[in-house]
Amino acid sequence: MIFTPEQVTCVCEVLLQRGCMDRLASFLHTLPPVSSSQCFGELESVLKAKAAVAFHQGHFSDLYTLLEGFPFSPRSHPLLQQLWLRAHYMEAERQRGRPLGAVGKYRVRRKFPLPHTIWDGEETSYCFKEKSRSILREWYHQRPYPSTREKRELAVATGLTSVQVSNWFKNRRQRDRTTDQVTSFQTKHCGGSSEGTYPSSDNNLSPSGSPHRHCCHPTPPPLFHPPPPHHSCGAHTNV
User: CB–CB of 153/224 below 8 Å?
Assistant: First the structure.
């Protein structure tokens, strides 16, 4: 069967989002070898799918080659960055025979920086103090969309700037959405039964829930004065 470029892109994206990695691998085997003559969108979708399958199958060398060899668009960066980091974390854990801690993960990131093909060059800070991160995490689990006033109060409470607080919440929401996709590689298999083959201890990259599950929440602990009560999910509009 011959597929149009639009059909190839659609099938790759749908199977990827659903976490049907065995079916995705089978579909990729039916396609001709990738070519530079393919349209950018089709080529990117196929290569992104191949990267996801390589991660799922534990073929990390193939994964790194794919990620380093094509200039992916920014919309693909979050997912591919997660694959890059998790693969390197898992390799390091296997070599050491124990889970990595925060320092170990930091050293892995320094040793294997993100390639420019999946990174826009913006620096990400991993060095917030634990007390500051604890405050932000507690608020995030209760209210992932703090208001502008609450961000200012969190900035004072954590010793960070309002911009850092805002970026932390934005990145955490994005990471949770991306993690749902990555986790689905290991927990949802439409065509196989290899669930849990490649576990990871990377708790920072694998939070317990998606922000979509945090719609209506009890009021988080006050910082300086109680935040206004929330009566509906529609109030969560500040990002």
Answer: yes
